[in-house]
Specification:
Length: 254
């Protein structure tokens, strides 16, 4: 109830705020994003974007927040709507500034989210583009943890393709996309953890990658990272879900 009231008050004052001081509003929107208050931050960035639709900062931040809030929606159609709008905004940001690492990252993020519930053919078609966008983002900004994270997901996904998916890849691309190994996935997630050590998502996905690789000591490493994940502070609804999944995987391994 308290959060709903805060959002209502924000909506009531947005039009005035945009007209008065966009810089202050931008700073507040970024603060909210950094504190994992994604819905509140999205409201401000959408208002800023409505006022200036060609601002690259507004575009990629809105895209990022659409992905973050979309994953919490119960209806799949609503989630996909968020992700497709995020893809559009990211591509627009890149068209305005091809050297925006964040825009390349959010395009890859949106495509990755779309792929989570996409048919195999679409997943494969998007695979090469996701990898390219992540690598471009990292080249432009090696400290962009989110891009390392998605690249890790890419490597793990490709490494886990089944026989039918590999046949489709061979048919459509003439071979499995370059890369794709659990070792590379673990390296990417470890880099993301190094850059953002308080992120539950990075440490959880690192644990999952160890578990899926399945080498002799990998479940030991997975348990270590799951326990570290569970010990981190919870800052968002997404974090709460990650804690739940971490506990479930830890119970399964033990």
């Amino acid at each position: 109830m308290k959060r709903c009231l805060i959002i209502f008050l924000m909506l009531a004052s947005i039009q005035f705020a945009v007209g008065q001081d966009k810089a202050a509003m931008f700073d507040e929107a970024r603060r909210l994003r950094n504190e994992s208050k994604f819905l509140e931050s999205l409201i401000l960035f959408q208002a800023l974007l409505k006022n200036d639709s060609a601002n690259v900062d507004y575009l990629y931040n809105t895209a990022y927040l659409l992905c973050k809030t979309g994953i919490l929606k119960k209806d799949e159609a609503e989630r996909q709507k968020n992700y497709h709008v995020a893809e559009y905004l990211s591509r627009k940001a890149i068209a305005l500034n091809k050297n925006s690492a964040d825009a390349h990252y959010t395009w890859a993020l949106a495509l990755g989210r779309i792929n989570e519930n996409a048919p195999t053919k679409q997943k494969i078609a998007n695979a090469k583009l996701i990898k390219t966008e992540c690598e471009t983002a990292i080249k432009l900004d090696p400290k962009l943890a989110g891009a390392w994270h998605i690249l890790g997901r890419w490597h793990r996904t490709v490494a886990g393709f089944n026989v039918i998916e590999k046949v489709m890849i061979n048919t459509m691309f003439g071979g499995v996309p370059e890369g794709g190994s659990y070792n590379a996935a673990i390296d990417c997630f470890a880099k993301a953890v190094e850059l953002e050590p308080k992120s539950l998502l990075h440490s959880y996905e690192l644990a999952v990658s160890y578990h899926e690789r399945g080498n002799k000591m990998d479940d030991v490493y997975a348990k270590v990272w799951l326990k570290k994940t569970i010990a981190l502070p919870v800052l968002s609804e997404e974090d709460s879900e990650i804690i739940k999944k971490s506990k479930e995987l830890l119970k399964k391994i033990e």
